[in-house]
Amino acid sequence: MTQGAYASLAEWFEYLNADCDYEKWSQYLYERLCGLGIAGGRGLDIGCGSGAFTRRLARKGFSMTGYDISAEMLAKAEALSAKEGIFPQYVLSDARKVHVLGGRADFAVCVNDCLNYIPAADVPAFFRRMASCLRKGGAFLFDVSSPYKLRETIGNNTFCEDREELAYLWFNTLFEDRVEMEITLFVRGADGRFSREEERHLQFIHEERFLRGAAESAGFDVHEIEGAFGDKSDRTRLNFICTRR
Question: pTM of the prediction?
């Protein structure tokens, strides 16, 4: 059965992505926030998924709210948060329709490819929405998988992995402005038999110049654009460090 993005992957997402080093990534975000004078207050995690960054930023002392369009991802986020004894708020919402209750937030993060799921035509409105959610001087940290990564590493390539608990096949087709992804999961059940689930994903390619222009037009100052973990030589990710004017 083919399902929407992250319906089946939610249960396994952090497990399969453990090598991305969530601790180091979260520390990078924290250091960038502190560098912008944000050392406490209310934070929004847009496209929070299973809550990896939401939980870690909450442990840093921020009052966090995570937003995601996948009910399955949010269920996993709540379960993992409860297991760790921390309780951020989680809200089911499309990133383009986020609402903040109780006044504007001090910062927002939108990382690990969430913005790649938003088509280019909707990006300017998304940035305007984010500006409306933040106080003046509030920080906005967002990233995308770079055009280089999607075109040269992901697009038109196939990836697979076979683990004890599950296996997956990941097929990617490159188009001019996007990569269409088909993922098949084989999950071992308690009886040793495998169940099969399929998902389809669509990630859009966003150029650095386009994102900078859209962010600035929405009322943000872009202070820095850097690669993964702040590495300026990295070509796989574009991290934008912004504040609201």
Answer: 0.96
